[in-house]
Amino acid sequence: MKFIKKVSSVPLAQTEGHIIDSFNTSDDHTTNAPSLNAVESNFISKSEMQIIGGTVVKTAVANSDALLLFTLEDLKTAFNTTTATHHNFIACVTNGDGSAFGKHFESCTWLNNGLYVLWDGATSGSSSVRINYVIFYIP
């Protein structure tokens, strides 16, 4: 496999001096680089990444476009760490029941010490929201 090498301030992975931004199977503008398996194992073994996932039901209040999913302290407890900051976590979420809550989730964001789920437009009334989540902790 060949990799395209780009200039970027935030590399996807770095191994043996190669900065990998994206993967490309064409021969245009490519350079030889380590295999994807080598990049993956090197990246993950050095980071000691941990993952949790699950589902939770929260209440969205009227006229809101976000709700608190977890606090920083919640995640520090879940991952058994005392030193983590919001920089150590990545969150992926989906609307776990689109019939009960008809909003499309846009993203997650940290505000102060809270991890919030944001959706597309304000709610008209209070509603239960099922949030399916995966949280990555990278020490």
Describe the structure.
There is one protein chain. The protein is mainly beta and 139 residues long. It folds into two domains: 3-46, no CATH class; 50-137, no CATH class. Helices cover 14% and strands 43% of the residues. It contains two helices and eleven strands. It has a three-stranded antiparallel beta sheet with strand order 4-1-5, with no helix packed on it. Strands 6-11-8 form a three-stranded antiparallel beta sheet, with no helix packed on it. Strands 7-10-9 form a three-stranded antiparallel beta sheet. The longest helix has 12 residues, at 36-47. The two termini are 30 Å apart. The relative contact order is 0.22.
Provide the fold topology.
Elements: E1 3-4, E2 13-15, E3 18-20, E4 22-23, E5 30-31, H1 36-47, E6 50-60, E7 66-71, H2 72-78, E8 89-95, E9 105-111, E10 114-119, E11 127-137
Antiparallel strand pairs: 1-4, 1-5, 2-3, 6-11, 7-10, 8-11, 9-10
List the main descriptive attributes of the protein structure presented here.
139 residues; mainly beta; 2 domains; three-stranded antiparallel sheet; 43% strand
